[in-house]
Design a protein that fits this description.
Layout: H1 2-5, E1 16-23, H2 32-46, E2 51-54, E3 69-76, H3 78-95, E4 113-117, E5 137-143, H4 148-158
Antiparallel strand pairs: 1-3, 1-5, 2-3, 4-5
Length: 164
């Protein structure tokens, strides 16, 4: 990357900063057992307990009250992030249905990658037989890249399967 982008110093080369796993509302509000299963599955996938996200204000149309749990988030840094990304690239993505590579539209202008995952069962830690509910979640991998091209190049070199 130093040659391609003309970096003068090794510290200018972009790197991965953090990986964020985010689960939004849905059934979490109405079923308390579903909330426990989601929390357990995300803890298995990430290796740490997710933080619950609370509603900021009440919305009667969605039957949401202020202070209710409406989602979970888990932020990974350091060794846990690299372990998660390695499992994500080598095991989970190939197991997902109809996967043909990561689309270039998944990158934002700062070079971060945002992917929506339809099923948590693509991770081997979650047993397919024991999981009663299948839920979608979002994975965001933040980089220190300044542009979209730098972020894409970093992800390609890390081993992400990106469509051409």
């Amino acid at each position: 990357m130093m040659e391609k982008f003309g970096y003068k110093n090794i510290m200018m080369v972009p790197k991965m900063e953090k990986a964020v796993i985010n689960i939004g509302a849905g059934k979490i509000i109405s079923e308390p057992k579903f909330k426990e299963r989601v929390e357990k599955d995300i803890a298995l996938i990430t290796g740490q307990k997710p933080a619950s996200r609370l509603a900021k204000k009440s919305i009667s149309g969605f039957k949401v009250r202020q202070g209710m749990t409406v989602g979970f988030v888990s932020t990974l840094r350091g060794k846990r992030m690299y372990d998660f990304v390695d499992r994500f690239i080598s095991v989970a993505l190939p197991r997902s249905r109809d996967f043909r590579g990561i689309d270039e539209k998944s990158f934002d202008q700062k070079g971060s990658l945002n992917l929506g995952i339809r099923e948590q069962i693509i991770f081997p830690e979650v047993a397919y037989e024991s999981s009663k509910d299948i839920f979608p979640f979002q994975v965001t991998i933040t980089t220190t890249a300044k542009t979209k091209e730098e972020g894409k190049e970093l992800m390609k070199l890390m081993g992400f399967p990106i469509k051409k």
